[in-house]
Design a protein that fits this description.
Number of domains: 2
Distance between the termini: 17 Å
Shape: globular
Helix content: over 70%
Order of helices and strands: HHHHHHHHHHHHHHHEEHHHHH
Radius of gyration: 22 Å
Strand order of the largest sheet: 1-2
Structural class: mainly alpha
Length: about 475
């Protein structure tokens, strides 16, 4: 298969995953008019509670999977094992450990709630989180089956069904019954159970496999070394929220978290790309043109990401003020002071996307033990910079700490990747894109252009890319062919 065909295939799957990922993760954005309205969630502090319980779940999720998801993907392509045996072994192991872990959290909810929230009656939140974590674990591995089999449409359809279910339940528990954060958790629990039932038919053939101790050993040898890496990554991803409760207050946390969701728009793209990327690069690793493909993918990913950053950053102030029915707006008025962090968070997730791109050599050369170095250093930088910047600069300090952490992560893995699996990237084109991003955001922050000026700047970008020779004629033709498909 040619380079263009390979990239076209990756683009198609990534696009489909992007749609489902965006729709699923957009729930937080879609519900923001309710979440940030005092009629439904009383104040910023209550929204801070919502942030803390979901931060806890994101952190605990790595202990529920302990690298077995990545290990399953890795050994699904191994010729020496039957895929059904790999799945059965992983599923039974993860299922049992998840059940035990949820029992521990459930019965220790009083102690856990004090650690997460501080003084107060939050035991229900923790017990609900234990159930959600358990049910979501039973859904994670079936989704991997669909990824391995490249059933991106089925994958996306089920994700969308889950999203619609949870959205409707949110509207019922929060909008109709007015249960606040408890209503959000009720909706999540019911949707998670429904999701398990939908995914059952896709596992039947895999349940015919056998539990193999040798496979379990290989899965653990691959997956367990990823735990320190995942733990460090979680520190980068969520420590700012927890530290903000300690160093500032829950009101500030609520403002920061609500705006952070808009900054996470680029994360939708990165997660969708990552979903398609790992199976893709493992599949083409033996191809003669593999490194050329990886190089092109990085350039196209960077182009798309930077255009998204500029577009969202230039118009986010207008978007969040859009009036909605019921005297609501996309972001509650009490939260608008945090909009300034959004371009910074968007840029941070671009560097996370670079990190995802650079994992290719680490996985192919089976050097996953090195990943703790990249994420560990980033975690240390994150905690240190948050301690220093957050008290002095508030939410902007936390945003810059996040950006700095992802820059460190991307830079260090790039250096290591080039040593174990050298790839000649298109450095000139990448430098052009970075300069374009820096100049665009500098104009936005320091010159504060008006609405019409911002429209002119954004519309001029495609013309600039073509006239500068950045985009080549054969790439335009290839893009047209992909769109037609």
């Amino acid at each position: 298969m040619s380079i263009k065909s390979q990239i076209s295939n990756l683009t198609r799957h990534s696009f489909i995953y992007t749609i489902s990922t965006f729709i699923q993760r957009a729930q937080g954005l879609i519900m923001l008019p309710l979440y940030t309205s005092p009629r439904f969630i009383t104040d910023q502090s209550a929204y801070g509670d919502y942030t803390l319980i979901y931060t806890f779940m994101a952190f605990m999720n790595l202990f529920y999977l302990y690298g077995m998801d990545s290990a399953f993907l890795r050994f699904s392509y191994a010729k020496e094992y039957r895929r059904q045996d790999v799945y059965k072994t992983a599923f039974l192991t993860v299922g049992l450990s998840a059940f035990i872990l949820s029992l521990i959290i459930f019965f220790a909810s009083s102690s856990v709630s004090y650690v997460v929230f501080g003084p107060g009656d939050y035991e229900f939140f923790v017990k609900a989180a234990a159930l959600i974590l358990l049910f979501d674990t039973f859904s994670n591995l079936p989704y991997l089956i669909l990824r391995v089999e490249e059933k991106s449409i089925t994958f996306s359809t089920i994700r969308i069904i889950r999203f619609i279910t949870e959205l409707l339940l949110n509207l019922f528990f929060l909008g109709w019954l007015n249960l606040g954060v408890k209503g959000i958790l009720y909706a999540n629990i019911i949707a998670a159970v429904f999701n398990i039932l939908i995914l059952l038919p896709y596992q039947f053939s895999y349940f015919k496999g056998r539990f193999e101790k040798n496979i379990l050993k290989q899965l653990l040898l691959f997956g367990l070394p990823l735990i320190p890496n995942s733990l460090a990554f979680m520190v980068v991803e969520v420590s700012d929220k927890y530290m903000m409760r300690l160093l500032l207050d829950k009101d500030t946390l609520g403002i920061y978290s609500a705006n952070y969701k808009f900054g996470s728009i680029l994360l939708f793209l990165v997660v969708a790309f990552r979903t398609a990327w790992q199976p893709f690069f493992l599949k083409v690793a033996e191809s003669e043109d593999a490194k050329k493909i990886y190089s092109k993918v990085l350039t196209y990913f960077s182009l798309l990401s930077i255009l998204v950053i500029i577009l969202v950053s230039y118009f986010i102030q207008d978007i969040v003020n859009i009036p909605l029915p019921g005297s609501l707006q996309l972001l509650g008025k009490d939260y608008l002071s945090g909009v300034i962090i959004i371009p910074i968070i968007l840029t941070a997730y671009f560097f996370y996307g670079l990190y995802v791109n650079f994992t290719v050599g680490i996985y192919i050369r089976k050097k996953t033990k090195l990943m703790i170095i990249f994420t560990g250093l980033a975690a240390l930088v994150n905690v240190g910079s948050n301690i220093y910047l957050m008290p002095a600069f508030g939410i902007m300090g936390a945003a810059f700490a996040t950006l700095l952490s992802y820059v460190i992560m991307a830079t260090t893995i790039f250096i290591a990747n080039q040593k174990v699996y050298p790839i000649i990237y298109e450095y000139g084109r990448l430098a052009f894109l970075l300069i374009l991003l820096i100049l665009s955001l500098s104009v936005l922050y320091y010159l504060e252009p008006g609405f019409l000026t911002r429209i002119v700047i954004v519309l001029a970008l495609p013309l600039l890319l073509i006239l500068s020779g950045f985009i080549k004629q054969d790439e335009i033709k290839a893009l047209r062919s992909i769109i037609k498909r």
